[in-house]
Design goal:
Shape: elongated
CATH class: Mainly Beta
Structural class: alpha+beta
CATH topology: Pnp Oxidase, Chain A
Distance between the termini: 68 Å
CATH architecture: Roll
């Protein structure tokens, strides 16, 4: 009975440690921007990684059902805080496999260890890159 209890405690400790490692990697594994989206009158804040490619900043939703991605689909006008500055963008989800794979590669290059750790939790084929286009004046 004691061995079973120790085994259960070990599994719980390892699970908590993994969740903590994922959180630390996602928040402190590199450059993190603050995305502000809207759901009705409510503003929602999400912390995300960002990469630059072809003159645009890109975000990545790890799951096609991510809350922030659903909010962007409903209202693409967003604000992003990056490097201490706030910028207004039109967020454009791009659901093309070639673009997804390119953004994955850029994320892996910029956030190598953290991206590998986070990748354990998601299917890379289900992720959705989001291009940030400057909002019209």
């Amino acid at each position: 009975m004691r061995i079973l209890l120790r085994l259960v405690v070990l599994v719980v400790v390892l699970a908590i440690g993994f969740v903590a490692a994922v959180f630390i990697a996602s928040e402190y594994g590199g450059e993190v921007v603050v995305l502000r989206t809207h759901e009705g009158a409510a503003e929602k804040v999400t912390h995300l990684w960002v990469v630059d490619d072809a003159g645009f900043a890109w975000l990545r939703a790890g799951e096609p059902g991510s809350g922030w991605l659903k909010r962007i689909d409903a209202n693409p006008d967003v604000t992003v805080e990056r490097g201490g500055q706030s910028y207004h963008f039109k967020a454009v989800p791009v659901r093309e496999p070639a673009v997804r794979d390119r953004i994955h590669a850029l994320m892996r290059d910029k956030y190598p260890l953290a991206d590998r750790l986070i990748s354990v939790l998601r299917d890379p084929n289900g992720s959705v890159p989001v291009r940030l286009q400057p909002a019209p004046g």
